[in-house]
Amino acid sequence: MSTATDRSRATYRFLTAASGAAGSVLVLAGLVALWWAASTSGWVNRAFLPTPQATLQSLVQGLAGGDLAAYTWATLSRMFSGWVLASALGIALGALIGSSERAREWIAPTLEFIRPLPASAVMPLAIALFGLSGGMVLAVVAFGAMWPVLLATLHGLANVHKQLREVSRSLELSHLAFVLKIGLPNAMPDILACMRLSMTVSLIVSVVGEMIASQSGLGQAILLAARSFQASELFAGIVLLGAMGFASNVLLALAERSLLRWQHP
To answer: What CA–CA distances, in Å, run from 65 to 7, 59, 188, 200, 205?
Structure first.
């Protein structure tokens, strides 16, 4: 009986996922069709809106024999490095502040003051400190992408159930042991979800930093294509950025689902 029920549930989940995937494909196909119609019918000048075929051709040529592959790798490396640094800093600072009630009372208001600052607003200060360099872009990426992870960790540590705190006291766990064995596992669902958001932020800030600091990457490639009115190269870079964001989100979602299997019976 239970086996039949499990099969029914698995079938239902598969059909639901397939239906959602089919709907997503149809929406994407509709957008591409609208793009094709707008570019081929003359609604928008092709100097500003190339056809999907021209964009695909520029994308393939750029990845196969042009500089687009090198630009992509530079942006991916910068995005991933900034995300790893932001995640490490966010978890460490969030655990340090969230595990202490007094630290939360003293520091949380300052965090709420700094948190709304957009990363782009911090770039002039970063340029003054680091110059127009790759280190400046990495610092700004880490700053912008750190906040979701930091606040998720802080919230998870601050909201550990009272019974778990009583268990830790009865077991005479040290402060560090409480954080590692109870606090962080309790906050892990929120941390992993916000790490996905942090990855998106790191991609956005990496592209903006490359444009401002003239660092090699897709941001610089898109900016140069726009200035030279190479619309197909510009759209190829944008499509590639969208694919990077989608792929990174899917990979992190799979990792999150694997690490949190106990939440999905």
So the answer is: 49, 10, 43, 28, 27
